[in-house]
Amino acid sequence: MKNDSMAIRPLLALGFIFCISLPIVFSLVQSQQVQAKKFCWFDNCNQHQNQKQNTTEQKLRRIAYYESWASRRPCSAFHPFQVNADEYTHINFAFALVDEEGRVNLSSPNDTDLYNELKHLREQQTSKTSPQLWIVVGGFGVSSVPFSKMASANASRAAFVDSALQFVEKYDFDGLDLDWEYPGAKDKGGNDADKADLVLLLEEMKPRFEQKGKGLSLTVPGSEYYMTGFDLKGIEPHIDWINVMSYDLHGPWDAPPVLRPHTNLTEINTSIQTIKKAVPAEKINLGLAYYGHTFVLSNSSCTTPGCPSSGAGKKGNCSLEAGTLINSEIEDLLSTHHVKITFDHDDAVKYFVLDDEWMTYDDNETIGLKEEYAVQQGLGTFIWAVDMGRP
Ligand SMILES: *[C@@H]1O[C@H](CO)[C@@H](O)[C@H](O)[C@H]1NC(C)=O
Ligand SMILES: *[C@@H]1O[C@H](CO)[C@@H](O)[C@H](O)[C@H]1NC(C)=O
Ligand SMILES: *[C@@H]1O[C@H](CO)[C@@H](O)[C@H](O)[C@H]1NC(C)=O
Ligand SMILES: *[C@@H]1O[C@H](CO)[C@@H](O)[C@H](O)[C@H]1NC(C)=O
Ligand SMILES: *[C@@H]1O[C@H](CO)[C@@H](O)[C@H](O)[C@H]1NC(C)=O
Ligand SMILES: *[C@@H]1O[C@H](CO)[C@@H](O)[C@H](O)[C@H]1NC(C)=O
Ligand SMILES: *[C@@H]1O[C@H](CO)[C@@H](O)[C@H](O)[C@H]1NC(C)=O
Ligand SMILES: *[C@@H]1O[C@H](CO)[C@@H](O)[C@H](O)[C@H]1NC(C)=O
Ligand SMILES: *[C@@H]1O[C@H](CO)[C@@H](O)[C@H](O)[C@H]1NC(C)=O
């Protein structure tokens, strides 16, 4: 995930943004527990059967990420008040930064206006459907550098934890989603000590957050490559859940670029099975992409997965990122052009050719298959991102 205030756009340019969160069954609990902002899982809910509300009040965990820069798009701009809040259990605001001193801070001073719109949404809802608001700290644009530095020493970790909790309390968020991309990734400024340092950091954060009734989650990549920097077994006790970025698995940034869907369910399943060995399903959220990737064809008669590409397709008129189109842009293209869409049911992806480009994306049918998969596997879900249009 990226931060455009750093002139880096969300998913596209470098393309390894994975936010897969698997929404899991999330039970809203009795009102006094809700006030205490505690979380109730399958098992602990059963232990407290007498406190549990009627099952009609149980909701699947379904998180919506919101990108602050969506409010400033030249077209298809999207403001927090446009979020259909009763569809989601949580709204995650992307992003807040880690500054040079290793402290959490605003990405832009104007973000507080967007926070206020979100709080208005939260307050409008009845307590039964009110989504929680979480702040996402980091993102693809921040890289590993400030995290690696901060996590490497006891004093700077402690200062980060203090600033994180202060930030969450000051702006009245219900939790914090840590988006360190990625511990141990040398190409992103990480180092070998990160893996153990991340566990220490979360171990120190969790009791402080819990004491204040605040949630704590972690985003993890959907690719096996970047996953090697995460000690999932060590992390698992110290987080409420992880959001698995099950997208951007392939893209025009690959070397060499090859036509491939970025949300191939067969590949996603492989990652999820690995993660499930360390993290119980009810703590995993599966990421659903509300955008697609575009590739320029190298050979106009070779248009199937595996064919060569010469790189990223043209940027969209609103999202302005070469190689990526958000769903509202794809929908515009499909409504104004006649194309032949291929639906690969097994891999739960769609793609088509338009002029000299190959485009792969998710729509309501492929998202539906991925949601079914999440239910079968006992996972929650999250969407990246709610501002990109409907699937
Ligand atoms: C749950 O609430 C619904 C609607 O209020 C009601 O119709 C239903 O009978 C309740 N179920 C249980 C098990 O209490
Ligand atoms: C946080 O950001 C604000 C606004 O961008 C800035 O004025 C302030 O100095 C920053 N705080 C710290 C502790 O860096
Ligand atoms: C912040 O708000 C001010 C005043 O409305 C505006 O001039 C400025 O362009 C905004 N900055 C960003 C980054 O949106
Ligand atoms: C840093 O923290 C670790 C773990 O809590 C502790 O074992 C170690 O003694 C601390 N080191 C220093 C220099 O304070
Ligand atoms: C999806 O991934 C599987 C496993 O890597 C692969 O066999 C299949 O060809 C992929 N599907 C597409 C459409 O690329
Ligand atoms: C996911 O992988 C498991 C284990 O290999 C397999 O049993 C299951 O059928 C796969 N599901 C999908 C949807 O690919
Ligand atoms: C273009 O693709 C077609 C179909 O796969 C293939 O027969 C042809 O050899 C390719 N042309 C070149 C120049 O690679
Ligand atoms: C951008 O707008 C132009 C002019 O309306 C249109 O021809 C083109 O298809 C649009 N591009 C995309 C990616 O939507
Ligand atoms: C998907 O959307 C299309 C167009 O709005 C609609 O015709 C179709 O029934 C939907 N399919 C599913 C599975 O929701």
UniProtKB/TrEMBL annotation:
Molecular functions per Gene Ontology: chitin binding; endochitinase activity
Residue span(s) of domain GH18: 60-391
UniProt cross-references to InterPro entries, sorted A to Z: Chitinase_II/V-like_cat (IPR011583), Chitinase_insertion_sf (IPR029070), GH (IPR017853), Glyco_hydro18_cat (IPR001223), Glyco_hydro_18_chit_AS (IPR001579), Glycosyl_Hydrlase_18 (IPR050314)
Enzyme class at the top of the EC tree: hydrolase
Catalytic activity reported: Random endo-hydrolysis of N-acetyl-beta-D-glucosaminide (1->4)-beta-linkages in chitin and chitodextrins
EC number(s) per entry: 3.2.1.14
A matching Pfam family: Glyco_hydro_18
One GO biological process term: polysaccharide catabolic process
Keywords, sorted A to Z: Carbohydrate metabolism, Chitin degradation, Glycosidase, Hydrolase, Polysaccharide degradation, Signal
Signal sequence interval, chain numbering: 1-36
Family indicated by similarity: Belongs to the glycosyl hydrolase 18 family. Chitinase class V subfamily.
PANTHER family the record matches: CHITINASE (PTHR11177:SF333)
Designated name of the protein: chitinase
